[in-house]
Every structure is written in C-alpha cells, then in structure tokens.
Design a protein that fits this description.
The complex is a heterodimer of chains A (373) and B (402). Chain A is α+β, with helices and mostly antiparallel strands. Chain A has helices spanning 7-23, 26-34, 43-51, 69-82, 89-103, 106-117, 225-260, 272-300, 306-332, 343-355, 360-371; strands at 123-126, 141-145, 148-159, 166-173, 176-183, 189-193, 202-212, 217-218, 262-263, 266-267. The radius of gyration of chain A is 21 Å and the shape is globular. With 402 residues, chain B is of the alpha+beta class. Chain B has three domains: 3-94, Acyl-CoA dehydrogenase/oxidase, N-terminal domain (Butyryl-Coa Dehydrogenase, subunit A, domain 1, Orthogonal Bundle), CATH 1.10.540; 128-237, Butyryl-CoA Dehydrogenase, subunit A, domain 2 (Beta Barrel); 258-397, Butyryl-CoA Dehydrogenase, subunit A, domain 3. Chain B contains twelve helices and ten strands. In chain B, the strands form three sheets. A four-stranded mixed sheet of chain B has the order 1-4-5-8. Classes of the chains: A alpha+beta (373), B alpha+beta (402). Chains A and B meet through helix 7, strand 10, helix 8, helix 9 and helix 11 of A and helix 8, strand 10, helix 9 and helix 12 of B.
Chain lengths: 373, 402
C-alpha cells in the first residue's frame, strides 16, 4: 500500500494549490458568503474547476473524465479545504459520480456523467433521515405503483441539496434499499434550504408521493445497500481529505500568528505553554496525514480492510480538526472570535464536516465493531 | 523472476532451514538474548539462532558487509523482516549496540574502530550500555561533569553516570565525558568507549517503582581508557551524541507499537480488547461498557495511525535523499505517551486483578502487566523527556521563537 503520492496525484495537488491560491483564497469564500447567494458557491469558479478537469477525476474516460481515482480527488479536496473553497465537488464529483458510475445503466451514464464532467450538471445524495448519521435507511419509503415508484418521507442534511439539479435518493423499498434519480423540480418535492453554520449549502427535503419513472431507478430495486455502504466510505475518505486540508491550514495560520503577535515585549510563540500545545497538534496532524493517504489508496488496492481504514481516517481527522481549530481560536486570543480573522471559519467548517456521514464517535464505534469488540 | 522475488525465495528457504524450532515460538519473559561476554541463554536454541544469524550478518541486515553486516538494501531488508514475521521467528538479539551505538559508529568512527567494534556488536559478543545522564544532568545533558584527563596513551576518567541500563551485566559502556571547558557546555564534550572490566568502574543497581532494577548508577574512579577509544574528534562528542539520540528515540518509539500488528490485521481483534474481554461484561462479542469500548477503540486507532506513520516516513525516506522528515521528531514523543496510555486502559479494564504485587491470587500475566505499567512511566522520561521532545519539535520543526 502506498503512503507516498503518485506522480499524477502530486501534479493535481500542485495544480489545485495554485488555483486555490489565485482564484479561491478565503476572501473568495467570504465574498460568496456575504453576497447572500443562496447557492453558496460561484458558478464561474465551478466552470473553471471543470475546465481543469476536477469535476471528472472519478469519471471513466469514455464519459469525459480522467479516471484519476480517489487519491487524485483526495489531494484536490485537501487543497481546496485549505482555503475553504465552496464548490459542488464533494456532492457532485464524488458522491453523484460514484453512485452513477457504479450502478447506472449505459443510458444513465451517458446522460449524466459527461454533463457532470463539463460542469453543467450538479447532484446531491439525499441520505440522512435524522440529525445524527445512520447508515441504514428506514424512514423514507419507495412504494411500487404500477411501473412507477412513489417516494414519501423526509431527508436531512443533504449537502448541496438546495441547488443540485439531480437528487439521488436512498429509500426503503419492499425488500431492501433502493436508489432513485430525482429531478429537483419534481412534483411533491419540497426543498428547504438549511443555512448551516459554515455557510455551505445544505437542505432538508420532504417527499410527498414523488413519482419516479422506471428509467430513473438507479441500479436494482432492493439491492442498493452494498453500493450505498461502499460509496459512503468513498465519501468519508474524500471528506477526510478536505478536513485534513482545513486542519493543516488552520494550524499554519496559528503558527504564523504565534510568530507575529507580541505581548509582554516578546513573541507569544516563545511561551512554552503555547509551544508544547503546538507541538502536540503537529504530532496529531502527522498521524492524520498517514491515515488519510492510506484511506484514499486502500480503495485502489482493493484492500479488504477498507471500512476500518476509512473509519480510522474520519475519526482521527475529525478529532484533530476540532483540536486545532479550537486551540487556534484560543491562541489567537480576542481576535480569534472575530469574524475578521479566518481561524474561526475553520472552527465552523470542522464541526459541519465532521458531521458528514458519521462523527468521530460513530467511527470509533464502527472501528471497534469491525475489529471484533 | 525478479531479483527481489528470488531473494525472497532464498531467504524463506534459509530461514526454514536455519531457524531452530524453539525460536519459532513466541518470546517468553526470560527468553530474550542480550549477548555479551557473560551471555546467558535460557534455551540452547537461542545460542544457535544468534550464531547462525550473526554469521550471516542478519542481526544487522542493512549494515555493510565489510564489517560483518548483512549488506541488504531497503527492499531486501523489508523482505527479510516480512519472511521472519511470516515464520514467527524471534528477535535473535536485543542490543543497545545494534540499536544505538552501531549506527553512530558507522557514521563517526575511524576505519580501525569500526573493524574492532562493529563485528562484535553484530555477533552479540560485547554487551553495551549507555553512559549519558548524570545525577545533576538529566534533561540538561550537556551540563555533564564526568571528566576525562589525558595521561600518556590513556584518558583517566572520574565521575558518575546514572540510568545506565543493565550496566551490572554489560561489558562496555559508551559515554559522554568532559574533556574541555564547562562553558560553552556543548563544546567540551567527547565520546568515549570504556571497558567496564576494570577496578575503576563500579555499578550499583537502582530499584524502581516496578520492583525491578533495569538501571544502574555507574561510578568511575581513575578508570583507564586507551586513547584509541575516543570516537570522532576530541571535544566534538556532542555531534555523535545527537546522532545517536536519534537512533535511541527511534528505538524507544517502537515500544508504543505492541499490539498494533493485531490491530492492523483486523478481524482477529486487538490485544487490548482481547485482554479486556476476560474481565468485563461481553454481549455478542461486544464490550458492554460503552465508555471503555470507546477508549479501547481510540487507543487501537492511535496504534494503527502511528504504525502507518512509521511506514509512511520510511517510504518517504526511501524516495528522497533528504534524510529523516519532520515527522521523525514525533516518534519518541508519541510512541512513549501512547504506550503509557495503553497500560492505563489495561489496568482500568482488569480492575483489582491488575493491582497485585505478588503471590498466587494473581496470574503471572496479570502480575507482569502491573509491573510493565509501572515500567512504562519511564518511557516518557528516558532518552529525553516528552517535554524535551516537545521543545525540539517547537524549535526545530515549527521554528517557534526562542
């Protein structure tokens, strides 16, 4: 298993790093946030990301992508996470693409994947059914009605849900879980924008007898659970990479502040009480880097230990991002809790990102179960 | 077949033929071979195993052949380690010569010194201990006062060292001694090898809270040391010491990894959970106490993350010529703190059965865990305290102001 970046991944990292520094520094995030743009991202920037091939990293070449794999999109998310770049990359290019590529029919793949690759189409995955992550769908139902299905129930915390063109919904059917492709303008679908603390897009959705035609069933009816779990793990590894980027940046911002800020006539970074805490954070970050690299590469190596490694990464990075963003705010002192300084933005992002598909406690629990206790 | 595949096949055959049966069984509490002039073997297979591996140079697989080492490259060494693990072979030799002194000698000793000392380390013929700390020089090691004065062809050494591991069983001691001025403190120190088989060297074991005495005080009273035992230049011993400390910290770091093999193999359950299950309520294979379960998982995950980091850093080192990365500096700190934490959890899970001191009411494993728990308290003190490691990271890696 490789814990060192491949040449392709290193190239993508470099390219994205330049893009993020030039086009989407944190001032970009702030301007999108303050513009009251309800989509919470900039379509022009998304177009440019698509032109650079970022939206198609997981898409097979015959559908217009580059198929560079999860390690590729992982480093991209990590670099964008550093500057808190808001974009549909996670929900569309990771979740949407993975579900459609794994389960879609030829027609579905032809219809959606090239449009995602060129940046014209966005998706989201409507999965959660309560405020806490639960990998088993049980509340939202899909009932057969002739050759159609009727969907009923409520979905929570759908990342990018309020603007995505296509909603992929997981529902309980008569003998298992099923997935459907739902147009955002479907009758009976009420999309409620959920304004999150990190100023990213999210929505809750109420489905009332939403009618699904047979061509919009994704994969086999009753048979989606294994793929759902596989894609949840892909998404967890991907979001862990974004969180690692955020944690690295929040750490560097804090270290720089310790080297600049003076009190009692000296730089505050000379105080041992702060130095030791900084050194501990550095240590935790080094462990996180290894976990994230391993979790991204374990899919390609077809390890049979994928779920455990992914839970390891998500839990470790979740804990560490909280540690660093909280310590970062504290070490900044008063300015740390002002909106003017960036450090507080990372604190907010850390909380929301940790909640996506299982917080640290959930993943520790899962790790224990998978290890046999 | 590639060269490496061929090497794997040959290695497997060689181990299969040469590893004696007893050495394929798990290590026993007294089964470790430490080597030296008065080496004791609790089973004859230990001696055979050491002899065979020592002759092949595989006690020090990557050291150069001309000094008796195995001469293996990075990949071959990895193959050897994997094949030894597959067969379940025991470590042939525990040795501060192998882990600490040897690598520093390879870097700093003269050709003659290497020829004299390295083969004996590889074959386990000389048992070494470390003479660094002094009663007044712990974390502030460079303030040390043990003095070496020139006298014709020799140095005459006077002073006292402390925390010299197993000094009462060792043949030679590598020391830091003052040969120059006390200030500036780093510049008057030399690195000297001293034979302990002389009347000027005395050792006195120190009894620890665990009841064991792995460390000694070592006293030098006009000890005689031939000048040829000076390593590197006079008054430049601190360079050697710093280099050697890296090796020491790497060795100490690996202590935190016990049980991680189980953790990375999955399914079979971690050592910590398996042990805990004997003492706590278990339902359908799950530890019922949710608090304890989360603590164990957190600890197992830290082991897992730490072993991945050791692996990552060794891969990075292989792919670049930049030497150890910034991450190396965290190993000693993390390994020792993690090991302490692991033992705290064991004690918590085992309840009063982990609190026995001696006697028949406690199993030998239980008594051993209690003693090991006490022993782990030194992990974050020896070889540079955790606070010293944090200082090093703050200053050298993060470049925070002085």
């Amino acid at each position: 298993m490789s814990l060192v970046l491949s040449e392709t991944a290193a190239f993508l990292q470099d390219q994205t790093q330049r893009f993020a520094r030039e086009k989407t520094p944190t001032s970009h995030f702030r301007s999108v946030r303050d513009s009251e743009n309800p989509e919470c991202f900039d379509r022009e920037i998304w177009k440019q990301m698509a032109e650079q091939g970022l939206s198609g990293i997981l898409i097979p070449e015959e559908y217009g992508g580059s198929n560079f794999g999860l390690s590729g999109i992982g480093v991209v998310l990590q670099e964008l996470g550093r500057t808190l770049t808001p974009s549909p990359l996670f929900a569309t290019a990771v979740l949407g693409v993975s579900l459609i590529t794994k389960l879609g029919s030829d027609e579905q793949k032809k219809k959606y994947l090239p449009e995602i690759a060129n940046g014209n189409l966005t998706c989201c995955f409507a999965f959660e059914e309560g405020p806490r992550h639960n990998p088993n769908v049980s509340e939202v139902t899909a009932e057969k009605n002739g050759d159609k299905f009727l969907i009923n129930g409520k979905k929570f915390f759908v990342v990018d849900g309020s603007f995505a063109d296509v909603i992929i919904i997981a529902a309980k059917s008569s003998k298992g879980s099923s997935l459907f492709l739902v147009d955002k303008n479907s009758e009976g679908l009420e999309i409620k924008e959920a304004k999150m603390v990190d100023s990213r897009n999210s929505a809750n959705m109420i489905f009332t007898n939403v009618e699904i035609n047979s061509e919009n069933i994704l994969g086999e009816i009753d048979n989606a659970q294994d793929t759902i779990e596989e894609v949840l793990d892909i998404a967890r590894a991907a979001i862990s990479a974004e969180m690692l980027g955020g944690a690295l940046e929040a750490f560097e911002i804090t270290i720089n502040y310790l080297k600049e800020r003076e009190q009692f006539g000296v730089k505050i970074g000379s105080f041992q009480a702060l130095q030791h805490r900084a050194a501990n954070m550095f240590t935790e970050l080094e462990l996180c880097k290894s976990c994230v690299l391993e979790s991204l590469s374990c899919f390609e190596e077809k390890s049979n230990d994928v779920p455990r490694i992914v839970s390891l990464a998500k839990a470790k990075v979740g804990e560490t991002f909280h540690l660093i963003s909280n310590e970062g705010v504290q070490m900044h002192g008063g300015v740390g809790v002002t909106d003017e300084y960036d450090i507080g933005l990372y604190l907010k992002r850390a909380r929301v990102a940790e909640q996506i598909f299982g917080n640290s406690e959930f993943h520790r629990n899962r790790y224990a179960e998978l290890t046999g206790y | 077949m590639t060269d490496l595949a061929l090497f794997r096949e040959e290695t497997r055959d060689w181990l299969e033929t040469n590893c004696p049966p007893e050495m394929r069984k798990p290590m026993t509490p007294h089964g470790m071979t430490w080597g030296g002039r008065n080496c004791k073997f609790s089973h004859p297979d230990q001696e055979l195993w050491l002899k065979r591996l020592g002759e092949k140079g595989w006690t020090a697989p990557t050291w150069p052949k001309e000094y008796g080492g195995g001469g293996l490259n990075y990949d071959e060494n990895k193959v050897l380690a994997e094949e030894m693990a597959n067969l379940g072979t025991r470590m042939p030799l525990a040795s501060f010569g192998l882990w600490m002194l040897g690598p520093a000698l390879l870097e700093y000793a003269s050709e003659e010194q290497k020829m004299e000392h390295i083969p004996k380390i590889i074959k386990g013929e000389i048992r070494w201990c470390q003479g660094y700390s002094e009663p007044g020089s712990g974390s502030d090691l460079a303030s040390l006062k043990t003095k070496a004065v020139e006298d014709g062809e020799n140095y005459i050494v006077n002073g006292q060292k402390v925390w010299t591991s197993y000094a009462n069983e060792c043949d030679m001691i590598f020391t830091l001694v003052r040969t120059g001025a006390q200030e500036p403190k780093h510049e008057g120190i030399s690195f000297l090898l001293i034979d302990m088989d002389q009347s000027g060297v005395e050792t006195k074991p120190i009894k620890l809270i665990s009841g064991a005495s792995p460390f000694c005080e070592t006293f030098f009273t006009d000890a005689v040391v031939p000048k040829k035992n000076l390593i590197h230049k006079l008054n430049k011993g601190w360079d050697v010491a710093k280099n050697l400390l890296q090796h020491e910290r790497k060795m100490l770091a690996s202590m935190g990894l016990g049980g991680s093999k189980a953790a990375s193999k999955g399914k079979t359950g971690s050592g910590l959970a398996t042990l805990s299950k004997k003492y706590v309520e278990v339902k359908e294979d799950k530890i019922v106490d949710e608090g304890l379960r989360q603590k164990i998982a957190k600890c197992d995950m830290n082991s897992h993350a730490f072993s991945l980091t050791l692996k990552r850093v060794s891969e990075e080192a292989k792919n670049s010529n930049n030497g150890p990365s910034a991450a190396t500096s965290i190993f000693k700190l993390y390994g020792s703190e993690h090991n302490k934490q692991k033992y705290e959890i064991m004690l918590e899970a085992m309840g009063s059965q982990a609190l026995g001191w001696e006697g028949g009411e406690f199993g030998p494993e239980e008594l051993a865990i209690t003693r090991e728990w006490l022993r782990t308290k030194a992990n974050s003190i020896e070889g540079g305290t955790s606070e010293v490691q944090l200082n090093v990271i703050s200053k050298r890696v993060l470049d925070l102001p002085q």
